[in-house]
Amino acid sequence: MYRLIAYIAMKIKFFKTEVAFVNFRTLFFAMFMTCIGFSGCDENNDDDPENGNEEVDNIVSVTGVVLDETSITTNVDGSITLTATILPDNASDKGITWKSSDLSIATVNDGIVTGIAPGKATIAVITKDGNITAECEVSIEGKDLNLVVTNTQEWEEALAAIRYEWCNRSHIIEVRGEVAVPGMGSVTASNGFGSNNTNITVLLRGDGKLYLNSNGSIITIGNEHNLIIDSKVLTLEGKNDNNRSVLYVQNGGVLELNNVIISNNVISVNGHGSGGVHNSGTFTMTGGAIRDNIGRGGFSAGCVCNYYGTFTMTGGTIINNTGVDRGGGVSNLFGTFIMTGGEINDNTGGTEGGGVYIRSGDLDGIATFTMSGGKISGNTVIVNSNWSQFADGGGVSNDGVFTMTGGEISYNSTEIRWLSSGGGVRNGNDIRSSTFIMSGGVIKGNTSVWGGGVYTRTNFIGANLNHFIKSGNSIIYGSDEGTNSNSASTSGHAVYWERWLYVGEQGSNHSLFRNATVGEDEDISTNNISIPPWNQ
What we know:
about 525 residues; mainly beta; Immunoglobulin-like; 4 domains; 22-stranded parallel sheet; 3 helices; about 40% strand; globular
């Protein structure tokens, strides 16, 4: 090939008269031969099968696409990002497109979903290779409705705005200053948050005070209504001679107290109800204080009446409330009470349950109280009649199922009457079964006439037996432990275990101590455990 190029160059140089012809003919011939030469003399030709470098088709097809969420929720003007993953990871073409089923509800741009109006839409991602689709349902809620309340009219307008609000969104009421509000009864279509409205969430906050200027509740929480109160300086104040709790939770309602003060609600002499909160739905208390309230009637509490509801206390304080009849702090009627933290202190019950009263019914279901933390302390029972000789359960009066795995019941007391019993815990009822299971926690410093720490009894036959089971690391202090000592003026400093007899009939108590001690160095054979002679 090189000789050919040299020959062409010489011809161009020495035969100038033939340049035009030679150039055309020679250049054409040279290019043709050059192409042939290069293709023939390349020893590493990539297309040569013998060299193992034959060109191969390396395209990897898409087999699927997945989204990181299958359903999401955001607000109008809010946004949330979806992430799509192409399968396999080494697919050649990872191109995708996004689509919304309803652009009037939500749009999507490169995976970013933006709310346009309340409603639902479907967001789809489609692969360019294979048109494979993955979908996510998006729910768009309205913007939070912020309502500032400084007077009675604005309070009524705020409730009306929520009541007639049909889109699914959160509402915020901020209270500023002292605001008088009219009392409320049960939720109807024209009061409260509205009985026709469901899935309503309201956050109540602010640095002011709502106080009642007429009988009723400040707020009644209806079915599928969720009220959250979160403000360390917000106060909800009742009134004298009221006929209803400050807050009333109907069946299906949800109340969450994070921080608030509920105080000074007094149920009238002829009234019936708890002073602070009546709950027939779901009530969670994580902080704040419910204090200085008075409840009356039957089994109502001074502070919280949990009537067929679920009450969970993880923090906060229930303090200085009075239940004229039963349950100075909490009256748990046929419901579920769970205490993991917080304090129930310095409350007064009129007959039984200075701190907590637990009531089951033959036809109304079993009431349960589970205590794994917190403190029930300084509560008392003071009988409100001259003739009664019963003042029972300074800390806890149990006519249901009480399970104690932790926490402290301490320094509670009962008024000194002849049959007063259970300074810390009174377990047992004359006509139905009761169970107290203690596997952790401490009972100390309590006082009564019979059973300073625990009094357990039965007064009936057949299946209605009262059970007291103590095990694990639980401690019930005896009489020689200084300030920790439980004390009984008649018998049973730590525990008094009693069974009553009837003519021709005999009942039975089931009590079991699974460890050898009642308190520190207190053997169960000492007089800290008292078993009447007719039981032995």
